């Protein structure tokens, strides 16, 4: 990794192992984007900046009519002096105007990476791991300083960017748009890829050609959302899994975001990501700083596989934190789909008894254990155990579960309050609301106002009390509605539009305190399934419940899309009952097992109701996952067949030392008399021989093949004749 500065050309060249990123300060003092792509040995790319006098493009320098901000490829464009494309920053100044002019003033190259006050980010463990370039841009009229932060890393292939805004003047500045990054790619044709969906079908892959004008994905829901993920990639039109250029951005943030691609009339494409300007503004008083969230940039010349590998390594190693980062995650059983709210201690212990005997390691008690919570209409906020359901309290329950050989975990939904609760009766102003307007409910609940310190303190106290009251080794942190009527009783009029972002800062502070106070607890975030599956959450909680949809076939799409960016160790995946509770589909238990083993494995069904034969299958699955767990959770993941394009999804994991691999394949609807498909494996040692064991239902076959044969010729998928079939191959390298 290097950051080079050429003072003569005023050129910055950032390099990591495979990538170069080049910028230049123009004669007029603007920061231009020159190049992002495969690594260049040195950069003399200044010649690439060709400016031509174009009709209707204004000139800020009358001496040089070819120069116009309208066409200049830029790094952090603003509005007012002739760039008519979408800006990265917008503000209203004390004089009522909005013209901004940011020119280069200074820069610094630092060892390591500075923390971003109160925000999640890719971190370093030693200053030698990274170099950071800080470039100060300055508007002398309004005395606004924008510092652009760029970090390159020695071991991980991402570049991170953010912006720090500082009011150096005497008058307040109202920021109305402050994105994390922007860059202008040269004339080319791109496809845009996004991960879109809804509750129960999160992160489905959507790919479309970029056309002139703006195309964007965003969330205005107060959460990153099920609907759009804070991710966007530009791909060369011919880019596929293993080849072609991909340029991706992902925002380390869990609230409202905007990600966009704007193609201008010269076929240049502006790529941006950051906090959504909708219902956002920030009052920057003299001397104050606003720090944007961080954007993670990934360039791959090797298609989606290359992009995925870079994101996975970065997130596993330098986004997720804490004791659990490198610890194999326990196989869990969650009682939600087994009992919903209708449980008591006896029922839970029956489930636990069975689960312990089958080798399951962690018992998770979901919603319904507190207050009067027998349905979803009441008690959120009243975090006191319901002794009618659990007469021996949480401690008593956890002890009995420990006797059955399992750890104990607990569900919370700390950001919410039920109108029917003691908390709401005592503090009606503690939820987000706008005086004089009705407050909408969602799942019969209101959102607590985490922009308030007293609310955050109360939640830290309530959750801490429970966690200290019993041996609780895992927490599922849920969040089940989106924000409406966003306003805070504690903020002045001119700061009301800061509420949603201040909420996120409050939430992050609460999570930081609790995860630091209880380092041994494994936290899993959740938002009605995967409604906040984003890098911001992963910084605090190293795993996420991928989706409330547990149907094995629907999960193929969800897990494929999620794993494009997020490592499988972060993806909660459970075997549930049939008919499936979300889509009523019936799939074989073997298939449900193989799909759930594509992530962080668990069960969510009433195992006391299984037949003996089914229990044997569960015991086998648990044993299999224990054998392959390290490879799945810490190995390299590859997609082998895309479920959005064909009749099946196939994927594999290869351990870092390439000694073990696991290949899985699941079919959707069957065709009569269908073709035999081959899977070409990836990431193996071509020179080595592998023992390949096919596990199909309860039967096994074993053979030996070369890594080269497996990768270049492939292996044939068994000839399935019914729907929703699956198989798994376990590969072990034979040492010569
Ligand atoms: C939504 C979650 O995604 C489910 O797994 C479950 O925890 C329910 N909430 C409980 O209310």
Q: Could you characterize the architecture of this molecule?
A:
With 736 residues, the protein is of the alpha+beta class. 19% of the residues lie in helices and 31% in strands. The chain has 12 helices and 38 strands. The strands form 7 sheets. Strands 6, 7, 8, 9, 11, 12, 14, 15, 19 and 20 form a 10-stranded antiparallel β-sheet that branches. A hairpin with a 3-residue loop joins strand 2 (11-15) and strand 3 (19-25). The longest helix is centred in the C-terminal third of the chain and has 23 residues, at 612-634. It is globular and about 85 Å long. The relative contact order is 0.08. The structure holds (2R,3S,4R,5S)-2-(hydroxymethyl)piperidine-3,4,5-triol. The site of (2R,3S,4R,5S)-2-(hydroxymethyl)piperidine-3,4,5-triol has 11 residues, from loops.
Overall radius of gyration: 27 Å
**Which secondary-structure class do the elements indicate?**
alpha+beta
> What are the bound molecules?
(2R,3S,4R,5S)-2-(hydroxymethyl)piperidine-3,4,5-triol
Q: Specify the helix fraction band.
A: 10-25%
Number of helices: 12
Sheet of most strands = 10 strands, antiparallel
Report the β-strand fraction as a percent range.
25-35%
Beginning-to-end CA distance, first to last residue = 36 Å
Stretches with pLDDT under 50, minimum 5 residues: none
Shape: globular
**Residue-averaged pLDDT:** 97
Number of strands: 38
Q: Which properties best describe this structure?
A:
12 helices; binds (2R,3S,4R,5S)-2-(hydroxymethyl)piperidine-3,4,5-triol; 736 residues; alpha+beta; 38 strands; 8-stranded parallel barrel
């Amino acid at each position: 990794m290097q950051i080079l500065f050429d003072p003569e050309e005023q050129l910055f060249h950032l390099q990591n192992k495979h990538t170069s990123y080049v910028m230049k300060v123009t004669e007029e003092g603007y920061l231009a984007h020159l190049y992002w792509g495969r690594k260049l040995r040195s950069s003399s790319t200044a010649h690439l900046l060709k400016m031509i006098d174009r009709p209707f493009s204004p000139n800020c320098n009358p001496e040089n009519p070819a120069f116009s901000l309208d066409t200049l490829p830029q790094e952090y464009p603003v509005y007012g002096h002739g760039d008519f494309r979408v800006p990265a920053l917008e503000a209203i100044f004390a004089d009522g105007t909005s013209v901004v002019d940011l020119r280069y003033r200074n820069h610094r190259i630092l060892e390591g990476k500075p923390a971003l006050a109160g925000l999640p980010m890719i971190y370093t463990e030693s200053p030698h791991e990274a170099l950071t370039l800080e470039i100060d841009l300055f508007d002398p009229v309004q005395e606004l300083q924008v510092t652009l932060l760029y970090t390159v890393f020695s071991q991980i292939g991402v570049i991170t960017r953010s912006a720090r805004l500082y009011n150096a003047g005497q008058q307040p500045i109202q920021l109305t748009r402050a994105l994390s990054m922007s860059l202008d790619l040269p004339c080319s044709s791109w496809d845009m890829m996004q991960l879109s969906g809804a509750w129960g079908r999160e992160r489905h892959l959507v790919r479309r050609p970029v056309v002139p004008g703006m195309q964007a994905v965003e969330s205005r829901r107060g959460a990153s959302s099920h609907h759009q993920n804070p991710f966007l990639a530009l791909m060369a039109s011919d880019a596929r899994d293993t080849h072609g250029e991909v340029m991706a951005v992902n925002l380390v943030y869990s609230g409202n975001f905007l990600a966009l691609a704007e193609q201008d009339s010269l076929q240049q494409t502006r790529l941006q990501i950051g906090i959504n300007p909708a219902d956002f503004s920030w009052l920057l008083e003299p001397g104050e700083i606003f720090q944007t969230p961080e954007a993670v940039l990934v360039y791959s010349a090797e298609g989606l596989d290359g992009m995925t590998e870079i994101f996975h390594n970065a997130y596993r190693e330098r986004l997720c934190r804490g004791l659990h980062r490198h610890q194999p995650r326990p196989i869990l059983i969650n009682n939600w789909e087994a009992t919903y709210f209708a449980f008591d201690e006896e029922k839970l212990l029956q489930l636990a008894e069975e689960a312990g005997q089958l080798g399951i390691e962690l018992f998770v008690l979901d919603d319904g254990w507190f207050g009067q919570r027998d349905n979803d209409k009441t008690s959120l906020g009243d975090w006191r155990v319901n002794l009618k359901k659990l007469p021996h309290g949480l401690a008593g329950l956890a002890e009995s579960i420990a006797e059955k050989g399992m750890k104990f975990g607990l569900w919370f939904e700390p950001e919410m309050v039920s109108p029917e609760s003691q908390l709401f009766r005592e503090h009606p102003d503690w939820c987000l609301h706008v005086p004089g307007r009705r407050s909408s409910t969602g799942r019969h609940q209101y959102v607590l106002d985490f922009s308030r310190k007293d609310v955050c303190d109360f939640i830290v106290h309530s959750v801490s009390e429970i966690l200290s009251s019993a041996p609780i080794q895992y927490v599922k942190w849920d969040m089940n509605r989106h924000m409406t009527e966003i306003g805070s009783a504690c903020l002045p009029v001119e700061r009301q539009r800061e509420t949603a972002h201040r909420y996120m800062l409050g939430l992050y502070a609460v999570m930081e305190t609790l995860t630091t106070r209880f380092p041994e607890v494994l936290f899993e975030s959740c938002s009605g399934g995967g409604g906040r599956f984003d890098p911001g959450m992963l910084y605090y909680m190293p795993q996420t419940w991928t989706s409330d949809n547990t149907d094995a076939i629907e999960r193929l799409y969800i897990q494929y899309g999620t794993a494009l960016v997020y490592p499988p160790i972060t993806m909660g995946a459970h075997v549930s009952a049939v008919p499936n509770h979300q889509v009523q589909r019936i799939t074989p238990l073997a298939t449900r097992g193989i799909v759930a083993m594509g992530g962080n494995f668990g069960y969510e069904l009433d195992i006391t109701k299984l037949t003996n034969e089914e229990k044997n299958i569960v015991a086998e699955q648990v044993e299999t996952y224990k054998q392959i767990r390290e490879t799945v959770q810490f190995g390299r993941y590859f997609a082998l067949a895309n479920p959005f394009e064909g009749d099946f999804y196939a994927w594999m994991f290869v351990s870092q030392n390439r000694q073990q691999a696991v290949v899985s394949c699941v079919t959707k609807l069957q065709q009569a008399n269908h073709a035999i498909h081959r899977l070409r494996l990836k990431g193996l040692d071509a020179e080595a021989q592998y023992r390949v064991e096919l596990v199909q239902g309860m039967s096994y076959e074993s053979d030996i093949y070369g890594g080269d044969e497996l990768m270049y010729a492939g292996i044939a998928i068994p000839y399935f004749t019914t729907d929703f079939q699956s198989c798994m191959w376990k590969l072990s390298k034979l040492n010569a």
